[in-house]
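Support request from a user on the community tier.

User writes: "When I paste my structure tokens into the form, the page sometimes reloads and wipes my input. The last time it worked, I copied everything first. Here is what I submitted, just in case something in the input itself triggers the reload:"
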């Protein structure tokens, strides 16, 4: 992202979540604030992403990863999780619509993007709950650990991390450094994140991935990492994650789109849930 400017891809993801409410009637996940937080530009943004047939698959993937993360979080709170960290929060609305009690929430993002979000919240008259703490972190100047510590994060408490739509924009070293921090938390942790396999343009879905990569690069937020699933799984195990669930395109199709026909793909966008808690 450009210095002094909010993340353009965060805005795009928010528009896709809002478009899902309108075009898909929120069938995967319902978010009554998705359109509202976009402000006066909501209709134009939704029309822009909704009128592009090539973005339908991406829109549904964004809806699924959100649903999957929120379902996993709900289950984790029943097992004692009392802290949520939303990494790269963008215009995520979970903290403003959750009905879960006794959950302390930290939103982590670049200071410029976070300031922009707070302006959006104010303009949309969306109240900030007392359970939420903003944790602005400029990763060029401080670590995630330092930023969370300043915000009052308790490393000894069981914590759930959502990390959606972020990993592809980070270097491999940055991804594993963050996962290592999560894995080392004394209180135990869960994390849900998404990633993409490296793809060739002539593979099924490969052209769409190349188009998306070109689009985000054009706004200064290029993809920096892709992962082979077996390699990522082995690394997660080595870092100390004990239970790992990886949903690739085939598993996503079976779980969320059972009525769809066609041969399921094994490569593409994946959603991972990993925990250090036995």
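"...and here is what came back when it finally went through:"
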């Amino acid at each position: 992202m450009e210095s002094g400017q909010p993340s353009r891809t965060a805005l795009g993801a928010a528009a896709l979540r809002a478009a899902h409410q309108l075009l898909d009637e929120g069938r995967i996940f319902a978010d009554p604030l998705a359109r509202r937080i976009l402000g006066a530009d909501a209709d134009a943004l939704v029309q822009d992403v909704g009128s592009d047939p090539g973005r339908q698959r991406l829109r549904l993937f964004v809806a699924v990863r959100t649903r999957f993360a929120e379902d996993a979080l709900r289950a984790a709170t029943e097992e004692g999780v009392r802290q949520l960290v939303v990494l790269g929060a963008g215009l995520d609305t979970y903290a403003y619509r959750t009905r879960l009690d006794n959950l302390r929430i930290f939103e982590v993002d670049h200071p410029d993007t976070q300031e922009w979000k707070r302006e959006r919240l104010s303009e949309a008259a969306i109240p900030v709950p007392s359970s939420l703490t903003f944790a602005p972190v400029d990763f060029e100047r401080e670590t995630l650990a330092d930023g969370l510590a300043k915000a009052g994060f308790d490393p000894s408490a069981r914590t759930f991390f959502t990390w959606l739509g972020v990993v592809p924009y980070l270097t491999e070293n940055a991804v594993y450094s963050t996962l290592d921090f999560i894995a080392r938390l004394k209180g135990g942790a869960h994390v849900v994140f998404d990633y993409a396999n490296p793809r060739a343009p002539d593979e099924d879905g490969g052209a769409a991935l190349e188009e998306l990569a070109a689009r985000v690069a054009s706004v200064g937020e290029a993809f920096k990492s892709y992962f082979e699933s077996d390699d990522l799984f082995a690394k997660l195990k080595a870092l100390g994650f004990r239970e790992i669930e990886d949903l690739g395109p085939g598993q996503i199709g079976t779980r969320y789109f059972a009525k769809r026909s066609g041969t399921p793909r094994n490569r593409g966008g994946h959603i991972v849930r990993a925990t250090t808690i036995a």
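Agent notes: The reload is a front-end session timeout and is unrelated to the input. The beta strands are 83-87, 104-109, 132-136, 159-163, 189-196, 243-247, 269-275. The mean pLDDT is 90. Escalated to web team.
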